[in-house]
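Subject: design request, 162 residues
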């Protein structure tokens, strides 16, 4: 996680140097910062603004406008529960509830050990597999509460859900 010490500023500066420093590069710079730190630390935006043509307000505006950007740390694994129409009808709410109970967190939160972040999403584009949970870039379909919890159990035991 970024406490944004000197070494972190060096990483941020290297990204800016590689991607560009004018205001038209705000999105690609923020994307690269997020890849590096797994979220966009506010201190990183301050550093970018101090060393480029971009302002903190511009960067914050971009980071809060686009849902792809995160301003808070997330877990090593992001667990997305689809709540699109097909998944909703198929029981997505129950999957979310079961995962919340198993992980001990609410939707949108991250476990204390920073292993998992749970989030509901509008659609994962896997309607024929509804209801669907995605861990990283792997989709799990035709789930019920028990199968959803099994995904976490499998991850914890080092199984194939990785």
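Subject: RE: design request

Done. Sequence follows.
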């Amino acid at each position: 996680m970024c406490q944004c010490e000197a070494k972190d500023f060096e990483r941020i500066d290297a990204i800016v140097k590689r991607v560009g420093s004018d205001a038209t590069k705000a999105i690609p710079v923020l994307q690269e910062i997020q890849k590096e730190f797994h979220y966009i630390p506010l201190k990183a935006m301050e550093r970018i603004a101090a060393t480029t043509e971009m302002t903190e307000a511009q960067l914050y505006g971009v980071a809060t406008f686009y849902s792809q950007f995160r301003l808070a740390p997330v877990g090593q694994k992001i667990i997305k529960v689809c709540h699109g129409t097909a998944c909703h009808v198929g029981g997505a709410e129950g999957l979310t509830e079961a995962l919340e109970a198993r992980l001990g967190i609410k939707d949108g939160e991250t476990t204390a050990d920073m292993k998992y972040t749970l989030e509901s999403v509008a659609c994962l584009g896997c309607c024929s597999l509804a209801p669907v949970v995605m861990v990283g870039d792997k989709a799990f379909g035709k789930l019920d509460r028990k199968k959803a919890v099994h995904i976490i159990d499998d991850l914890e035991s080092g199984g194939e859900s990785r």
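Strands lie at 77-82, 116-121, 133-135, 138-140.
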